[in-house]
Amino acid sequence: MFYVRPTGAVKTIPLKDSKMEDKNNVKILKMRKNSFNWSLEPITKCMHVMGVSIPPSEEIKSCRLICHLYRTFCFLLVSFVQIILVIQVFGDAKNIANSYTNGISTTTFSWNFIIDNLNLALYTVGSHTSFLLLTRPKTWLDLVLSFKLLEENGHSSEIYPICRQTAVKAVICIITMNFGLDVLLGLDVLSNDAPWARKILDVLGLVNKIYPAVQLALFSILMKMISLQLKAIRKHFQDQFTQSHPSSLMLVESQRSHLIALRGHHRLICNAIRKLNRHFGVFLTLEIIFIFVSVINCSLFVLMGATSGDGLLGGLNAAICLESLVHLLILSSFSDDIPNQTDKVYEALLQLLHHQPSLQNEVSLFTEQLLHMKPQINAMGFFIVGKHLFPTLIGTTLTYFLILVQFHSAEKS
After folding, report:
1. Is 13 within a domain?
2. 150-192 pLDDT tens trace
């Protein structure tokens, strides 16, 4: 095989070397397509467009200034929109609320309208701020290194392709849900009497919800990685240990050392979960607060839309309420999967002890570690995130909904 230099000289490269180089390139490409960064690529590309891109690599340091300027611009734009919305609603809440309810708004509805705008502002600006703090070079590197250690000690090659598929589905879901809400809000603002400046700001304010939505997707995919790591440990027990009976001292020692390595891998998993709790704690707290307040307010707005015959108002708030419930379902499902997978690892260890009593010491140490280091997702230590939040949400919503309806009825009478 021949290659021509710019000077015209001809250099001969052996065909064997060329084939080796091609094989190396293919190997590098395969390694890239089965890595942590590759699995998050659909989400990180969205983050880049939104102005919360991950820290640039050494090869593109020249873009750092542009990235910082773009990050600052996006944050200031989001903050400006939310601050103006809050200032306007505080200054003229009654008239703005009347424009959305065809003039039948009450003081209760106006105050709920103010609370709803404050809740949205705190949610979007707070989530955007925590997103920017998460993608600082030092913080992001700390998080990535935790997952890189899991990658180096991993026991399954299927983890990253599955997570990438989840990331693609998450991006499609985010775009679809936000587009649907924006269309409903656009139809609603076109039919009300609010000033055009307020209409545009309302649409932009709802568009800003894409920031917490993408952050939730990122958190869910990272949780999926950890869940699959625990699942790989359990599967390894079932496939390797329980299907073979040691017949030699050498085989017993090999399995014992492997069990010790798996115990160390579990400690790395617990360390990664602690870092997720630390770096996503503020966001999780804001997410749960927003969901509770949003569902309570939307229930009243849906009632107002039904009583006034305003189908757009009722449909829009029903869709927002549904989106909040979907967020809570996603958050609680991925969070609950971690202790569930840990329990399954514990059951697999007990089964292993039954099949191979010779590994009793190592199995006992592993089970004690599982009991004392059982990972859970919490929001800044205030509460555990899980499906148990659904009954709490239902009870809280019903309580406040009945109180708000009584106030609303008393004002009308």
Report:
1. no
2. 887 765 678 889 999 999 999 999 999 999 999 888 888 888 7
Closest by Cα among 380, 383, 382, 386 to 339: 386
**199 Cβ partners below 8 Å, 6+ apart?**
189, 190, 192
| pLDDT value, residue 32 | 55
Q: Tell me what the mean pLDDT of segment 342-362 comes to.
A: 83
| pLDDT tens digits, 10-19 | 445 455 555 5
Buried b (16+ CB within 10 A) or exposed e, 83-119: ebbbebbeeebebbbbbbbeeebbebbbebbbebbbb
Q: Cα separation of 145 and 409, whole Å?
A: 57
What are the structure tokens assigned to 70, written together?
Answer: 């773009």
Residue 15 in any domain: the answer is no
**Do 53 and 47 touch, CB atoms closer than 8 A?**
yes
Range of the domain at 226: 45-412
Q: What is the pTM of this model?
A: 0.87
Question: Using an 8 Å Cβ cutoff, are 294 and 318 in contact?
Answer: no
- Total domains in the fold of the chain: 1
Cα gap 96→105, rounded to integer Å? 9
Q: Looking at the domain assignment, is residue 23 inside a domain?
A: no
Q: Report yes or no on 366 lying in a domain.
A: yes
